């Protein structure tokens, strides 16, 4: 089974799979939070979505409340915040855990034998088949040259 076939609901509760969220195209998967010092990265993630959507690429946000309770809101509150504050148009999943015993299966597959997620806004670039192409830390900005280059290579 591919990571793309893992079940995950959209933020609004609509059931589906990761393939539904990515539309079967390369994607940057990011654990997000609304009350974090890194939350302004939403603007740059949205810009990536706008810049590369026509090339068969998307960003997918995974709200996570595991890091100092920085994503405490309900699904409606998260959606409203993302839309009103950053104009987010990319898909958001239901709230998930990315570390520990409750780690969502998508994150189990992303991490494999690697290190736990260190904080909000960790980034995984996957290809259209769901293979992890690159992993970027929380403090790596979405528009950093290494992120943009990796995206351009995976959509080429």
TrEMBL record:
- The source's superkingdom equals Bacteria
Biological processes, Gene Ontology terms: cellular response to oxidative stress
- Name the residues that span the membrane: none
Note the InterPro entries from the entry. Answer: Glutathione_peroxidase, GPX_CS, Thioredoxin-like_sf, Thioredoxin_domain
Q: Where is the active site?
A: 36
Q: What Pfam families does the record point to?
A: GSHPx
The question of whether Oxidoreductase is a record keyword is answered with yes
**Keywords recorded for this protein, A-Z:** Oxidoreductase, Peroxidase
Coiled coil regions in record: none
Which parts of the sequence belong to the Thioredoxin domain?
1-156
- Listed GO MF terms: peroxidase activity
Instruction: Reply yes or no: does the keyword Oxidoreductase apply.
Output: yes
Question: What family does the database annotate?
Answer: Belongs to the glutathione peroxidase family.
This protein's name:
Glutathione peroxidase
